[in-house]
Design goal:
The protein has helices at residues 48-59, 62-69, 74-83, 90-109, and strands at residues 2-14, 17-26, 29-34, 40-46. It is α+β, with helices and mostly antiparallel strands. It has 2 domains: 1-46, Roll (Urease, subunit C, domain 1), CATH 2.30.40; 55-110, no CATH class.
Length: 110
């Protein structure tokens, strides 16, 4: 099946309890909940990264968690450099440098 949006790696709260599942969305409505290995989507959202943000919020480190979660775009950027030998544009280099500098400053300040 083809979805407009596929949310992968989330934890759904269902009537029988919590369950790890993917959520398929069509026309702004939840169309299916389950494991969708062969299905396609116009957009795919990885919800697994939100788990770390939520845990940081629970232990009271929201400022640190927010800063570290902002570094997530660096991971695919580095993957593209190493795996696919992509070339970076100036904006990408500048953004990565600013994110890493912010993390260093946050570490020094705490």
């Amino acid at each position: 099946m083809h979805y407009d949006l596929l949310i992968r790696g989330g934890v759904c709260v269902l009537p029988w309890g919590e369950e790890e599942a993917d959520v398929g969305v069509i026309d702004g409505r939840i169309a299916a909940i389950g494991a969708f290995s062969g299905d396609t989507a116009a957009e795919v959202f990885d919800a697994a990264g939100l788990v770390f943000f939520t845990r940081g919020d629970q232990v009271g480190l929201v400022a640190v968690t927010a800063a570290v979660s902002s570094a997530y775009p660096v991971i695919p950027l580095v993957g593209g450099l190493i795996l696919f030998r992509e070339r970076l544009r100036r904006q990408q280099v500048g953004g990565a440098i600013l994110i890493l500098a912010g993390l260093v400053l946050l570490g020094v300040g705490s």
